[in-house]
Specification:
This protein has a domain of about 70 residues. The protein is mainly alpha-helical and about 120 residues long. The N and C termini lie far apart (about 95 Å). The radius of gyration is 37 Å and the shape is elongated. Helices cover about 75% and strands about 0% of the residues.
């Protein structure tokens, strides 16, 4: 291999190395932008978690205070619920537990629409 060929080969490899360096710098800049974005989101999530924890503690304290206030009322547990309220609570509990899905009664849509006002 002649000196000229060696110099040309060296020049070609230098150009390839410079191109690779430029590509890696661009990739590094893109990754740095993504990293900065992730850090920003992480900081926001940490603030959210801290505020959630603080809010949760305040709610727990409020509930505890309310329960303490209710426990100071003598005879509160001895007061019977009205029959209608007890039935409504029972129906609501049944609905929440899925009893409403088990109903086998068909609903007559025509009678429901007949009771509604005309538009």
């Amino acid at each position: 291999m002649s000196v000229v060929d060696t110099v040309q080969l060296l020049e070609l490899r230098t150009k390839k190395a410079a191109g690779l360096i430029a590509m890696l710098r661009k990739e590094k800049a893109e990754l740095q932008e993504k990293f900065d974005l992730v850090n920003t989101h992480n900081a926001e999530l940490e603030e959210y978690a801290e505020s959630f924890t603080t809010s949760n503690k305040l709610i727990e304290e409020s509930i505890a205070k309310a329960m303490d206030n209710l426990s100071t009322i003598d005879g509160l547990d001895d007061i019977p619920l009205m029959d209608d309220v007890a039935l409504e609570l029972e129906a609501a509990e049944g609905f929440s537990s899925g009893d409403a899905l088990a109903m086998e009664e068909d609903i007559d849509l025509d009678s429901l629409l007949g009771d509604s006002p005309a538009l």
